[in-house]
From TrEMBL:
Naturally occurring in which organism (per UniProt): Dyella dinghuensis
PANTHER family: HLYD FAMILY OF SECRETION PROTEINS (PTHR30469:SF15), MULTIDRUG RESISTANCE PROTEIN MDTA (PTHR30469)
Multidrug resistance protein MdtA-like barrel-sandwich hybrid domain location: 70-199
One term under GO cellular component: efflux pump complex
UniProt name for this protein: Efflux RND transporter periplasmic adaptor subunit
Amino acid sequence: MPSGLTRRPAWLAGTVVLSLLLLAACGKKAPEVDQVVPVIALPVQAVDGVSAGRFPGEIHARYEMPLSFRVAGQLTQRYVNPGDLVKKGQALAQLDPTDAGNQLAAAKAALEAAEHRLLFATQQRDRDDAQSKQNLISRLQLEQTQDAYASALAARDQAKQQFELAQNQSRYTTLIADHDGAITSRQADVGQVLAAGQAVFGFAWSGEREAYLDVPESRIDGIVVGQAAKITVPALPGRAFDARVREISPAADPQSRTYLVKLTVDQPASLLQLGMTADVILQSGKSSTVAISIPATALFHQNEHPAVWVVRPADTTLELRPVTIARYGERDVLIASGLQAGERVVMQGVHTVSIGEKVAPIAPPHPEDAPQ
C-alpha cells in the first residue's frame, strides 16, 4: 500500500454495508391487507317446489260483454257513464220511441179489427150450425162458414202475435241492465243512429272475479284446466287468493303468439277491482316439495354444471356451490337441491367474483331488483 494513503477502518466499511441494506428495505412495499369487495348478496327463501310457473295477470269479471239495443234507432239519452255501478232492471239508455210507438199503435188496431172479424165469423158459424141441424142450409154453405171462422181465428192469432211483438219492440227502445254490475266503457254517443246489436256500453257483472294470463307457447303445455293457483295483487299486500284454471285458449294470439288463460277465483272477492294487476303462481301438483327460488341473474356455471356463489357466514368469503335446477322461469330459477333457505347468495355480478374472495354483502340499489 502506498505510504500516502491512509487505511480505512473496518467499522466504516460495515457501516456502509448496513446503510445499503436499510435503503433496500425501505424500497420494499408493506404487505397488502386482504381487500374486501362489495357484492349484491341476499338470503334466499324457500318456496313451494310444485310451482309450474309465475305469470303477470289482470283481474276481470267472470262475465264481461257489450250491451246493445235489440232494435235499430237513434240514441236520444244515456243515463250512465263508465265506472257507474248499476242494478238489475235499471235503465241505461234510450232510443227515439216514435217509430216503435207507431208500430205498436198499428198492431193494436190490426188486432182489434181481427177480433171483430172473429166475433162476426163466430156468430155466423153458430147460426149456420143451428140451421144445418134443421136442414135449412146446404152442407156446402156450412163448410164455407166454418172455413171463414177458421180463417178469422188464425188472423186474430196472427194479429195478437204481431201486437205482442210490437210491444216488445217498444220496450226494447229502453236499454235495461239484466244483472248487477259496472259500466266499463261507452261506445256510442247521443244522436248516433244505431243498428240492432251495435254495442253501446261495455258491461261487467258483479260477483265472480277472474285473472287473465298471457302464456307463451313454450310453457302452455304445463297448464291444464282445473289447475290450482295462488293470486296476489300489489294493491292488496299480504292477501292471497286461491284460484283454478277455467279456460285455455285453443289458439295463440296472432300478434303476440301467446295463449289466453282464464283463472276463476275460488271465493267471491269484492276487494279485487277490475283491471288490477296480479301476480299468479300456477301449481303443478299436490306435492309439498320445497325448493329455493333465485333470480336468473344469480345463476353461474362451473364448466357445464349450474352453480351459485354462496357467502360463507364464518369469514364472508365466496364458495362456488353446484346446484340442481328444478325449473327455469322467465326471471327466476327454481333450485331443487344444493341450497338451504337463509343462505346468502350473490344475486348480480356473478362473473366478476372468484373463489375464496372476501366480500361485503350489500342490498340491491333498487328495491324492485330484490327477489320476491
